[in-house]
């Protein structure tokens, strides 16, 4: 589909799309407007004021990226950080995703490459055998160990954020005797609702844990502080408690990496990607609003693919 609107003239439509179809807040829309305005100003300064979406090409995007790379912040008098450059580029990519949604001919969102930031923190994750050691670390003959096994299994099975985990309630975990499936709706960042799924073994450990519970607390995961059951104090575990629990079993399992609940979330995501799950689906599993957030994991899996190709492809099977 084509029409006579320039890219700049699509801003009001794009903001309506962010509000209605993506459910973003007014503040977030303001941020998108601010980041896109730099692109619009650059278009005007470079005689692209009337540029139509279908005329946007790789060469124009490249020139804009060069501009961002060499641009000096008027306040700090310093060049833009790579991470700041990427905010502008992600906003532009979102505009192109809007064009795709509305069947408006333009450059593919993937044509907007993000700036490589060498200062980015490396994504830390556990290999599957390390995850297994961690999951087996709790002593399940005790009620605390049984709870902790259920916590660790849930973190790896669902990829939940720690805040999402502690907000789970018992009434959400409806395990049917005749079924090995469990799907639960959770509310994540930005009030975004998504479904999470539990593996067969996680369902088994949750059922075992819940069968041992004799209290009436609403929370799925509770603390067993001595005497707390005799008070009106909430027994729901806090994010800090979960972090301490994970830290405890990392030490017991003798893992070389100081894993956190978020490391388990990273491990969940990299395991999915390593097994061929599409990046868009991983984005849905994790509850990311923007695909750019999920793309941090591709650096890990790309390295894995490179190593597999180097070590296995054609090795010892082709003559020199």
Automatic annotation (TrEMBL):
This is Tyrosine recombinase XerC. It comes from Candidatus Falkowbacteria bacterium RIFOXYD2_FULL_34_120. Belongs to the 'phage' integrase family. InterPro entries: CB (IPR044068), DNA_brk_join_enz (IPR011010), Integrase-like_cat_sf (IPR013762), Integrase_catalytic (IPR002104), Integrase_recombinase_N (IPR010998), Integrase_SAM-like_N (IPR004107), Tyrosine_recombinase_XerCD (IPR050090). Keywords: DNA integration, DNA recombination, DNA-binding. One of its GO terms (biological process) is DNA integration. The lineage of its organism: Bacteria, Candidatus Falkowiibacteriota. Pfam families: Phage_int_SAM_1, Phage_integrase. The keyword DNA-binding applies. Residues 121-310 form the Tyr recombinase domain. PANTHER family: INTEGRASE_RECOMBINASE PROTEIN MJ0367-RELATED, PHAGE INTEGRASE-RELATED. Residues 5-100 form the Core-binding (CB) domain. One of its GO terms (molecular function) is DNA binding.
